[in-house]
Hints:
single chain; mainly alpha; 6 helices; elongated
Amino acid sequence: MEKGLSQTDVCKSLGLTNSVLSSYEKGQRHPTIKGLKVLADFYNVTTDCLIGRDEYKYTKKALIIQDSKLNDWYNDLLKSSEEDLRKLQQFWETIKDEEY
């Protein structure tokens, strides 16, 4: 709700069914560790926050991406080395300048 997304939007982005996400929210079912990581990345919080051990904390700049492949790419980008990010920045500056 805080991000302005419906349960259907979240499910579509994460590849979950509504019943699975609903059961997580109600505490009737629990995600795997991998699932917790995916949810934490999507909601931009720590896994401790998801399991109730930590207050609501952002793990990185909040960004909601509806396309799951683009969201995966963005999360990979956040784990990139500084050198790779600089290369990507140079590439971005090059293509951005070409558009204008």
